[in-house]
Amino acid sequence: MEILHIFGLEKSLFIFQLVNFLIIAFILKKFLYKPMMKYINERKNKIDQGLNDAENAKIALENAGEERKKILAAAKADADALTASTKDSLENTKIKLTQEAKNRSDQIIDEAKQKAAMEFENMNSRIGKMSVDISGKIMSRVFSSLFTDDEKSKVLARALDRIEKGVYEKDAN
User: Fold this and answer.
1) Residue spans of alpha helices (H) in the chain
2) Most C-beta atoms within 10 A of its C-beta, which of 6, 15, 127, 136?
3) pLDDT tens across the length of the chain (173 residues)
4) In three state form, how does the secondary structure of 158-173 look?
């Protein structure tokens, strides 16, 4: 035990320090180590949960990308179908409007032809009347030197009557 005294170690003091160390170790274990380990385990669980959530988010993101592609493909198909439908509708409308315009132009042409025919008949009638009047005047001048007024009016009336009948008979044919 001399060696213990040489180094300044006493038995009662050593036991007291050992008991003191054990008490402090117990207190530290109970009040510091266990709460610290609990906190570390909770932190580790949160980190593991965060990694799992990140992995799940990565998978969800990949699935969302695939879903996005499907939605875009469906939208493109719908847009193509709508475009084709619009083109068909536009073509049908174009054909319909073209036919309506053609029908209207045919109607306008027919109306113009009818107007022209009526105008032609009207002009023929007016020309016929003018020719009868001119013929009457010519005959009146020619007959004035050949016949008396009474004879002239009878011949003139009969000639004008024949001319009118001849003109109107031609109009009837």
Assistant:
1) 2-6, 11-28, 34-146, 149-172
2) 136
3) 577 677 777 788 888 989 999 999 999 988 988 889 999 999 999 999 999 999 999 999 989 888 989 999 999 999 999 999 999 999 999 999 999 999 999 999 999 999 999 998 888 888 878 877 787 777 777 766 677 778 777 777 887 788 777 654 554 44
4) HHHHHHHHHHHHHHHC
Tokens, residue 121: 């008949």
Residues near 139 by beta carbon (within 8 Å), at least 6 away in sequence: 155, 156, 159, 160
CB 32 within 8 A of CB 25: no
Supply the DSSP symbol for 9.
Answer: -
Inter-residue contact 156 to 143 (CB < 8 Å): yes
